[in-house]
Structure formats: structure tokens, C-alpha cells
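Extended Data, panel c. Modelled sequence:
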Amino acid sequence: MYRIKQRPDDFIVEEIPKLEVLKKGDYTYFLLEKRNWNTLEAIKAIAASLKVKEGRFNIAGIKDKKAVSRQYISAYRINRNKLESLKIKDLSVTVLGYGDDRLRLGQLVGNRFKIVVRDVEKKVKPIAFIENYFDDQRFGGKNSLLGKALVQKEYRKACYTLRLRWSGSDYIAPLRTLGKRLLRFYINSYQSLLFNEAIAGWLAGLPGEKWTVDYTRGCFVFHKDRPPSKVFPIVGFLTEYPTKDVETIYKKILEKENIAKEAFLMRQIPELNSEGNAREAIVPIKEMSIHYKKEDNFYLAEVQFMLPPGSYATVVIKKLFGTKNPPS
């Protein structure tokens, strides 16, 4: 079985920004290079060091912990000298300039990856597309289960799972102490799981050579030849299904989950309302190269490629090197 992320330098990701840098503005843009930090933990540490609220920082993407990553961050009205003087282990900050607006999730041209894959049993060729699943990082711990509990308004269950203390029947106050960003992340995790199940169901029904690879929440269905382009909803309370077949797939999943799309309207915690979004089911992989080096009975593979924002490099690695199972 192949291995990745054995060392931080085995997984390098660099954002390709879509950013206009000015000489002045309310927002300070900086490049954060981090090693063995996930993005939200890094922002929390920076905010604590500067004694400011985390909400003053915005990102274009969330990056893995077990990696070296270079990503762009906006900071609202924070002096560049304070940012440049930060001293936090395995974090470095380079101020780029200023702008008039905060960064938003997905505000990227894409991400460039350089990944070392160890214990590869046989060589494979580069591929030109990937099924656009969310991968295990999105579902770490009980993220999607917590998201489902929140959407189903099972606030006591969420508090219990998170080991929060509550008073009487007020479960919302302790949840709010976690902050909007983290609570929304839990809901996004659940939405991501629903998306994965939807496109896996669609791909399983298409003709052509296909196989499955396991992940923590089920299995990915992969195709040898590129399926047709299709957009699937990230389901929310305003979701409109683009086609009848997509609606049928989603309604079956939501019925199994005992949930309706209207559940994403959070009247008691309105800051967690989720209208829904959309995501391509199939995306291109650009500039892929694979270089192999023989190591004992295995190969070490160095894989480089570019992906659109929000797509997971680890899904690419699973498709290339994962254990292939016949479709169910």
C-alpha cells in the first residue's frame, strides 16, 4: 500500500492567487508558509499572538496540516510591521501589500502540488481529469456527524459530542462559544458528504470502465475515460436541482438521511444558514508529471500537477495509486 505525508516535505502545496495588490487599503495581504499546521489553527495562533479576533483574517482555501503549504491571507486593519514581527514555530509571514477587500474562499486560479508517494508497487501514467470528490481531510473526527446534528437541530447531541457544558436547555450558547467559522465548517463537512454520495451514485450508473477506491466515509467511483461535464449542488435550503436525474439522486440520499434541504435554514442560529452552492463533478488536472525512483521492491514517485481551487490532491493520488475494487 502506498504511503504519503511521511515527512512534511513530502506534500507541498502552493496557492496560485487571484489577487490585486495595492500600495494602500484596509486589508493587508500576506503569504503564509506553514509546516505541520492546519490553516484554522495557524490563524488562531496568529490572532492570539497579535491579540486580535480571528474574524479579522480571511483565506482563499484551507490547507492540510501534514504538509508544507504556501497560502494567501487578508488581515483587516492589522499593521504590516506587527505581522512581519511574528515569531511562531513553523509559521512564516511575508507581507505583499494592501487591498480594498478581504479574501474569499475559492478566490484562486488554482493550487500547485508536489507530492512524494512512497512504496508504490507499479508505475502508472499521468491522468488528465479527476472526479471532484471531497476527501478524508474534510471529514476528520466527527465533523460530518456534528454537521448533521446541527442541521437536524439536535443541539444537545452536538454539545454532548463536543463535550461542551450547558445550562438547563440552552444548548445554543455553548455551541456559539466555538465561533461561526468552526460551526459552519461542521455543516460544510456534512454537505460535502452528501455531494460525494450524489456524484458517486451518478458515476456508478454511467457506462464505461470504472472501479472504486475506499475512503473513510465510503468509496469513490472512478472512471478510466472522462465522463460528461456536470454540475452538482452543494445542497442548501435554496438548492434548485439542475436536471431531473440529479434531483432523483439527491432526493434518494436525503430521504435515507431523514433530512430535507429546508433543514439548512437555521432559524435559531441564523449565522449558520446555508443557501447551498454548486460544484463541478469532473475537473481537469493540468501539467501533471510523474517521476519514479526505484527503492528496494517499490518505487518512490514524485507527482506534480495543478488543480482548480477546492479540489483535493489526495483524491488524485487515490485514483492513481489506490487499491482498485470492482464497482458494486
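Helices lie at 39-50, 80-84, 143-151, 155-162, 172-176, 180-204, 244-257, 313-321. This feature is highlighted in the accompanying rendering.
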